[in-house]
Amino acid sequence: MAPIIEIKDLTKKYGLRTAVNRLNLIVEEGDIYGFVGPNGAGKTSTIRVICTLLQLDGGEVFVDGHSVLREPRDVRGLIGYMPDFFGVYDDMKVWEYLDFFGACYHIPAVERQKLIEDLLELVDLSHRRDDMVDQLSRGMKQRLSLARTLVHDPKVLILDEPASGLDPRARVEIRELMRELSRMGKTIFFSTHILSDVSEICTRVGIIENGEMVATGGIEDLQQLVMPHRQVRITTLGPAESAGTLLKEHPAVSEIVLNGASGANRNRIEFEFVGDDEALSGLLSELIGRGVRLIHFSEETRDLEEVFMRITKGLVS
Amino acid sequence: MSALLRRFRPVSWIRENPVILKEMRSRMRGWRSFLSLTGFIILLGSFVGTIYMTFASANNAFPGINARKEFGQALFYTIYSIELVAVCLISPSLTAGGIASEKESQTFDLLRTTLLSARALVTGKLLAAISFVLLLLFATLPILSIAFMFGGVTVSELLVGTLILILTALFFGAIGLFYSSFITRARIATVLSQGTVVLITIGLPIFALMSISIIEVSTFSSPNSVIRETILLIFGWLIAIASPVATAVVTELILIEEQSLFFIRVPIGSGNGVLTPSPWLGFVALYPLLTVLVMWLTVRIVRRTARQ
Question: Is the pLDDT assigned to residue B163 strictly greater than 80?
Fold first, then answer.
């Protein structure tokens, strides 16, 4: 996949404070990229630079090959930006809001009418078409805001904290919308604090702290990077001795805990394993080959929250 | 010319500027605009009624043509003065919140990531505000027409007066937008722009009168009266074209005294005098120029602010 957002050594300073320090990042076409970091990490500054709203102090940022510095107008046509606040025009109806922004992207009036209906249907706000914007709930405003980012059919959606301040239901709705937009071929780059959203919908993640990218990649890759030990649990039917012996001899296995009987003739063993999927699959074959009667073989899922906590505390280095 | 118009398509440019439509729609929504418009007309109507009663009782219901003309002129001057004051106060107030309110409601960033140019944003805000001022002026036409019924007022007076009003609205509106472009609070921008307007409309003529007195006193003993009179003429003319109030008053005085709308001959020394254009001609040249300059500055600031 071609990179659609490419950040090279981005630096942004506010006076003496460096908000973003030589940040490098690549978002590929079709990605749902979660940009995660604590408050003040430099997420919003990075997003504002990508969206041509902020001058950078060093480095280069490209969107679909267009420089945000030299071709800001081209970049604006390619991105749909949703800030972490909802810009409200109190005295506008829902359809007028979309119509106004459609006109700001020079979409002809004849096309706008149909476009507005389609967008409202997509974000499930058709029934609120003629309501005033300030009468909508926060979740609805966020959905309307998302519809606004789509009026000019951009390639990339850049969303700053899209689920911040929303109730659980509205959060799920926004998440589903993002999935739907990804299916429609949009690349989504979003910043968030909500790690469950990241692990559920992101294809790639970047973790930023103190203006520096501390980790980036697929969620699995990050988990592998931060926590190379995989926690595996097996259950045998009958005695677990042969399985225990094999595991003790295996170089990639450590921290074996025999949990004893876990039911009628069942024995549970937990252990840590270092290796990729291929190696883990090999271990399973070996166990079966040695005649171990396995009825359960599973890997404990590693929580992204734990990954995040370890990384942002500097445990990676 | 037609090729130029085809290229720039001013009508479709105005029609396609989304800011103009949005601002006009927002302004006319609800009761606020309707009430302010009605209030203004009632205020104007009551002034006209008071003047009518005063003249009617003093002149025994306008017995002669001169009394009717005097009444027509008094009516025109009153209505025009109120309109001029209204334009001076309303125009900057309507625009001073233009950009600042976008920042306050956090919509400025949204606009700056669209393809809407800073120029379209700024001119859209100005034209939308001016269109409301024009509506205000248009709504007073029926009251103004009463002055014509009585006579004493010419069409050229009305046209020149209207031109001064429109150009004043544009320039003072541009001043409001200028402050709005770099001040984040709409209220502060309004106060500053109205202060500037007061300085131009009232401060400048007062300053001029004081300066003229000083020049007259300091050059009283000068043997060369031609130089003194020339300095006074140039200075006075420049001040007369800088303030819309001074322009309107001096233009009208020249019209009454000299019966000339365009040029007068001002006697200097013992010669034939200098052919001097009526102040409104200078005003018509100066104010659009100043408007363009202030708008250009505003667009530059908006562009710069957008990427800070």
Answer: yes
Q: What is the reported pLDDT for A104?
A: 93
* Closest partner CB to A53 (pick from B16, B26, B112): B112
User: Dihedrals φ, ψ of B222, to 5°?
Assistant: -65, 130
Name the phi and psi angles at A185, rounded to 5: 100, 5
A85: chain B residues, CB-CB within 8 Å:
106
Q: In 3-state terms, what secondary structure has residue B195?
A: helix
Closest C-alpha among B83, B197, B212 to residue B138:
B83
Residue B42 gets the label, from left (phi > 0), alpha (psi -120 to 50) or beta, of: alpha
Q: Is the pLDDT of residue A250 over 60?
A: yes
DSSP state of B117: -
Q: For residue range B97-123, what is the model confidence (pLDDT) as tens digits?
A: 889 888 888 889 899 999 999 999 999
Per-range mean pLDDT, top range of A146-150, A201-205, A303-307: A146-150
Q: Which of A55, A77, A89 sits opposite B308 (nearest CB)?
A: A55
The reported pTM is 0.80
Q: Give the pLDDT confidence score for residue A317 in this predicted structure.
A: 35
Structure tokens at A93: 């109806």
Among the listed residues A126, A151, A136, A129, the one whose alpha carbon sits nearest the alpha carbon of residue A86? A136
B193 is written with which tokens?
């722009």
Q: What is the pLDDT of residue B33?
A: 86
H/E element, A207: strand A204-209
- The answer to whether residue A263 scores a pLDDT higher than 80 is no
Which of B22, B105, B113 is nearest residue A81 as measured by Cβ atoms? B113
Determine contact, residues A36/A206, Cβ cutoff 8 Å: yes
CA dihedral for A123, A127, A129, A133, sign (positive or negative): negative
Contact between chains at A91 and B29 (C-beta distance less than 8 A) = yes
Question: Inter-chain contact A104–B114, Cβ cutoff 8 Å?
Answer: yes
